Amino acid sequence: MDVSSRTNQRYFNVGYVVPTLGKRLDFLKICLNSLHINKVGFIVVVRPVDAGWIDSEIRDSVDLIIDDKGHGLAGAINTGINSLPVSVSFLNWIGDDDFLQPDSISSALNWFSTGKNIVAVFGRCSYVDAKGREIWENKYGRFATTLMKFGPFLIPQPGSLIRSEAFKSVGLLDEELQMTFDLDLFLRLEKIGKIEFLDQKLASYRWHTFTLTAENPKLSLLEGRKVKLKNGEAAMKIFVFVVNPLAKLVIRNGKRYIEARSRVRAKRR
Q: Which whole number is the average pLDDT over 154-183?
């Protein structure tokens, strides 16, 4: 879709960053199309220098394409966020293989208007396989906000929207973290305002063998412990001695469950 053709339809106060390696062009196009459907006002794609070949494929679908400076995923997202115009009041990032549900942005924006000091809104999120078939849906809801302080991080980041002013006030993503920079951000946001749950499916997360969580759940747990210590959570003692072993079990069995469901769905079709 040509950017100019949707000028009068866009939420200019909403900006999205899409980090990509340029290896999944079909998924990237689905992702960008979901942002168009949601009338996102400013879309930034951050890609490696050697993936410049994708520019001609997506140039008419985005507002800005910039080079990844090679500081990891968090660094790529930070680079994109720093390039958003000052008119952007709400922002988020989304993986190039994930996508928003229709009316995700309008619903989140409406929720921001329901109360004071709301710094972020998140909704339900479905897990889909490589072909887009739903495997499972994250329905932890409001409980996820409490659980992130001492247990697994279950807030679906793709299905969230963050107030830009709040994001800037707590600082950018921690580029030393590979997998839990979103947890770190939400823990910091929770200290300055409300993180609200919207009981609506806002996004879909594509689960396959290339996702970070699927590849290295142990690293995710180790970083999660580091993040909770850094943020000074008193509940960290519970996490270390009681919840951490349970979290390992939940993550391991959850991964097996999702992969088993994916295999069953694939056989049925």
A: 94
